[in-house]
């Protein structure tokens, strides 16, 4: 199935520290290039992130944005050592000042050092990160497949147009030789008696050799069938399609160089238009 290299996807998971999100944006590129942007405390997992993306994608530049939106309550936890020291201090003061009022819990929490940043469990954080990345990659693949399917339809429409041009050319090519022979006879009518008949036949043979496009038409049909087949294959097809576009364009140029009829010239131009339209789509196929 044809996949586009342009796509977007996002995934979010809730963690003990807050909301962890992964945003993926991909555009066309000759090779696979992963560009992660993530908080420094998660940078240790960059290698795992790259590996997860590379396992599912083969081409395109992929910008990966990892964000951790920490909730204030979830990102802090009590510091047992500081709390114990504070309790010991309060007990000592209470001995000297028995009438001292009890301290409210909110006042305790405001004491410097009582609250500390919650420690991250490395294994759990890696699990959350890989989960959100994999979800985003699956969404990206789905988006790529959807757009790729539409691109394949557009390419198939152009292939149908090229096939019709080839059919039309094959139908009128025999007329070109007949018309040339008629023009040649008309020009030579006054001096025919002075010419060697075999010389006229040689001229016709040379003309037919120069203008014979049967081989080009056959190769065009072969390339059309190959493009259709490649579009339906499950593996990445971008590079193969790009090569086939070059081959189609080469045959269209050869067809134009052999033209001895306005209809053949127009057919060559029409072919190039269809091929260029397909090439624009192919540049974005994985």
TrEMBL record:
Residues 171-286 form the Endoribonuclease YicC-like C-terminal domain. Pfam families: YicC-like_C (PF08340), YicC-like_N (PF03755). InterPro entries: YicC-like_C (IPR013551), YicC-like_N (IPR013527), YicC/YloC-like (IPR005229). Its cofactor is a divalent metal cation. Keywords: Endonuclease, Hydrolase, Nuclease. GO terms for molecular function: hydrolase activity; RNA endonuclease activity. Signal peptide: none annotated. Residues 3-152 form the Endoribonuclease YicC-like N-terminal domain. Belongs to the YicC/YloC family. This is Uncharacterized protein (TIGR00255 family).
């Amino acid at each position: 199935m044809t996949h586009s290299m342009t796509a977007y996807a996002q995934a979010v998971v809730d963690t003990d520290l807050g909301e962890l999100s992964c945003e993926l944006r991909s555009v066309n590129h000759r090779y696979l290039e992963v560009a992660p942007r993530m908080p420094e405390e998660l940078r240790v997992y960059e290698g795992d992130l790259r590996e997860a993306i590379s396992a599912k994608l083969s081409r395109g530049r992929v910008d990966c944005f990892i964000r951790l939106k920490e909730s204030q309550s979830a990102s802090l936890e009590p510091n047992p050592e500081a709390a114990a020291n504070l309790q010991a201090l309060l007990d000592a003061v209470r001995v000297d000042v028995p009438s001292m009022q009890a301290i409210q819990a909110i006042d305790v929490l405001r004491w410097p050092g009582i609250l500390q940043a919650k420690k991250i469990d490395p294994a759990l954080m890696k699990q959350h990160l890989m989960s959100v990345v994999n979800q985003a990659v699956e969404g990206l693949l789905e988006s790529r497949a959807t757009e790729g399917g539409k691109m394949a339809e557009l390419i198939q429409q152009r292939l149908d147009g090229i096939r019709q041009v080839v059919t039309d050319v094959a139908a009128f090519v025999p007329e070109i030789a007949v018309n040339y022979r008629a023009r040649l006879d008309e020009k030579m009518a006054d001096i025919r008696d002075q010419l060697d008949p075999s010389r006229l036949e040689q001229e016709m043979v040379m003309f037919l050799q120069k203008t014979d496009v049967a081989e080009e038409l056959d190769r065009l049909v072969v390339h059309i069938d190959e493009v259709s087949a490649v579009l339906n294959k499950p593996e990445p097809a971008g590079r193969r399609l790009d090569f086939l576009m070059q081959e189609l364009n080469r045959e269209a140029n050869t067809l134009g160089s052999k033209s001895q009829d306005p209809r053949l010239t127009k057919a060559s131009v029409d072919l190039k238009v269809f091929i260029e339209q397909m090439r624009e789509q192919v540049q974005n196929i994985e």
